[in-house]
Amino acid sequence: MSETPTPPTGPESSPPPPPPPPSQEAPVTDAALVADPADVEKNKVMAILAYIIFLVPLLAAKDSPFARYHTNQGLVLFLVIIASFIALGILNVILGFILPAIGCCVGSVLSLAFVGGALTLAIMGILNVVKGQMKPLPLIGGIKIIK
Questions:
Q1: Per-residue pLDDT of the chain (147 residues; tens, 9 = 90+)
Q2: What are the distances in angstroms from CA 146 to CA 53, 63, 121?
Q3: Scanning 40, 78, 93, 96, which has the fewest C-beta atoms within 10 Å of its C-beta?
Q4: In the chain, what are the domain boundaries?
Q5: How many CA atoms lie within 13 A of 29 on its CB side?
Q6: Cβ(38)–Cβ(132) below 8 Å
């Protein structure tokens, strides 16, 4: 004869409680700041100019958080470009003395690669402006000069 086992009773028999529902609101982080839509529309051109000539939006749209954010990004990009070209110039001189034929080629390739990277960052910044986003650029976006 077979006996039917009885289910256990007590705390070990109850199922675990369900996990709490996920939060509907995502926390706002520095990685993607929220811009005022009216400010974005009013200062979009100034923010685009920030990646070409950072001084114009710095003077013309100094009260706009959106334009100021992108002016900071453009200024940092400009300073990185200047510092990198100085470093590449020094490297070209050093390589030119050590290996004249190869040094010029290596320096030229590095310069072209850097110009391509800087142009890519500028285009990414302009695309962020067009989308109305205050998103930091890769590698340099965390540097803040203009508050």
A1: 556 666 555 555 667 777 766 655 444 444 457 888 899 999 999 999 999 988 898 888 889 999 999 999 999 999 999 999 999 989 888 888 888 877 778 888 888 999 999 999 999 999 999 999 999 999 888 889 887
A2: 15, 12, 19
A3: 93
A4: 34-52+67-137
A5: 5
A6: no
In whole angstroms, what is the distance from residue 70 CA to residue 55 CA? 11
Q: Pull the structure tokens for residue 37.
A: 């839509």
19 CA to centre of own chain? 34
Degrees, nearest 5: CA angle 97-99-105? 105
